[in-house]
């Protein structure tokens, strides 16, 4: 099959059959997607059958530990990395914070600099900027204030003196939504001797990454936005992961997947993350996508993106044609994630409330993207209206949204 079977897709999500959620068109996916049935089933099973200390010498403990190991191994295989390179934490913000503490120690006493952007969600910006408190130089890769885009030529200038050791940037912004060329950026950084930390929170919901193809040293995303439980997932490649100072109990420092986990992880939610792999495999099987786990993931990724581009294009075109708002980010649906933010000629929050009364679930505000919105001259008091889709969003959903916008605006 060359396109997603939407009836099959939506049947995998319990929310579409529940009275509280089935009656509206859901456009708050960038804040958190619906969990797929496979994740819900695994979470329920863990809490009812194996909610004990895992890995102990008795059946429930063995089953729980095995399921946690399964999640790490299968997600790693999907993303073409070793299972031990997949770390879990309570959120992406927490995972990035822990990683930054390791980098703080790694750079202490050196003249090494780091690069951050002002296109990022705060999770991959604020913690790195605070390294300046240690005397570490922080350089800002600035977005274009008109388009919101990052220019790789500007990065080359920041890297020119050879002092930069880490470059932190987003796969795409949660308000600008332009898909950055991660592979090209990582290649430029690597040639300059710098490691790369990619915030994939706003991209991974639209297809899990092929990490080696991207070439980054760290890739971070949130499972609750990729149809899973509320966990942060960090892929950290072994070479750099074992070089950075450990942030865990000293006796766990030899284990890469424990090395950046200061506290005990959430066993049930880690186990439930295997349901995300179940879901990708179910889509692959239904649509005739074959090969190993990484190949199936790439095929499903392409199906998801094709659906999203086709569905979101009419919304982007509709908004671009209006003269009472500013569409943030690209007008070409193929160059952006289906997260569409607009700055209105009025406060955005009442508009989101009015849309909610018309069966459209969305929200307004700054979405922790204060820096990019300020850099683009958006009035933070008004905020932006954000309309975020994903691969289970239908053309009918978008038609309902456009009709409601016509009434409200």
UniProtKB/TrEMBL annotation:
User: Tell me, what's a Pfam family for it?
Assistant: Aminotran_5
Q: Which domain of life is it from?
A: Bacteria
Annotated GO MF terms: transaminase activity
Keywords tagged on the record = Aminotransferase, Pyridoxal phosphate, Transferase
Q: Residue ranges of the Aminotransferase class V domain?
A: 26-401
InterPro entries membership: Aminotrans_V_dom, PyrdxlP-dep_Trfase, PyrdxlP-dep_Trfase_major, PyrdxlP-dep_Trfase_small
PANTHER family attached to this UniProt entry = CYSTEINE DESULFURASE, PYRIDOXAL PHOSPHATE (PLP)-DEPENDENT ASPARTATE AMINOTRANSFERASE SUPERFAMILY
Protein name, as recorded: Aminotransferase class V-fold PLP-dependent enzyme
């Amino acid at each position: 099959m060359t396109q997603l079977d939407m009836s099959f897709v939506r049947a995998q999500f319990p929310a579409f059959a529940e009275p509280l959620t089935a009656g509206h068109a859901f456009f708050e996916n960038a804040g958190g997607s619906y969990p797929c049935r496979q994740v819900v089933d695994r979470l329920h099973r863990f809490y009812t059958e194996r909610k004990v200390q895992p890995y102990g010498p008795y059946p429930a403990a063995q089953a729980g530990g095995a399921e946690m190991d399964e999640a790490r191994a299968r997600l790693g295989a999907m993303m073409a990395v070793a299972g031990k390179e997949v770390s879990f934490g309570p959120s992406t913000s927490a995972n990035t914070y822990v990683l930054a503490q390791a980098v703080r120690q790694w750079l202490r006493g050196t003249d090494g600099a780091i690069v951050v952007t002002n296109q990022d969600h705060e999770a991959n910006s604020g913690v790195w900027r605070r390294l300046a408190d240690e005397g570490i130089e922080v350089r800002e890769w600035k977005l274009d204030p008109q388009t919101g885009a990052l220019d790789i030529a500007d990065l080359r200038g920041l890297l020119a003196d050879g002092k930069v050791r880490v470059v932190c940037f987003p796969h795409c912004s949660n308000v600008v939504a332009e898909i950055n060329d991660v592979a090209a950026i990582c290649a430029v950084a690597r040639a300059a001797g710098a490691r790369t930390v990619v915030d994939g929170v706003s991209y991974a919901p639209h297809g899990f990454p092929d990490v080696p193809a991207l070439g980054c040293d760290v890739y971070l995303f949130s499972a609750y936005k990729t149809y899973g439980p509320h966990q942060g997932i960090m892929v950290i490649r072994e070479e750099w992961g074992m070089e950075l100072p450990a942030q865990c109990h000293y006796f766990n420092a030899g284990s890469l997947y424990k090395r950046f986990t200061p506290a005990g992880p959430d066993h049930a939610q880690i186990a439930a993350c295997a349901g995300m792999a179940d879901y990708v495999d179910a889509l692959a099987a239904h649509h005739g996508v074959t090969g190993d786990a990484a190949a199936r993931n790439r095929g499903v990724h392409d199906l998801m993106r094709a659906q999203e581009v086709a569905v979101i294009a009419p919304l982007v075109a509709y908004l671009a044609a209006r003269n009472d708002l500013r569409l943030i980010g690209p007008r070409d649906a193929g160059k952006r994630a289906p997260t569409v933010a607009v700055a209105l000629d009025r406060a955005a929050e009442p508009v989101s409330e009015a849309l909610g009364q018309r069966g459209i679930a969305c929200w307004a505000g700054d979405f922790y993207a204060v820096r990019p919105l300020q850099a683009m001259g958006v009035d933070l008091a008004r905020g932006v209206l954000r309309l975020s889709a994903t691969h289970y969003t239908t053309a009918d959903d978008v038609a309902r949204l456009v009709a409601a916008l016509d009434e409200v605006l």
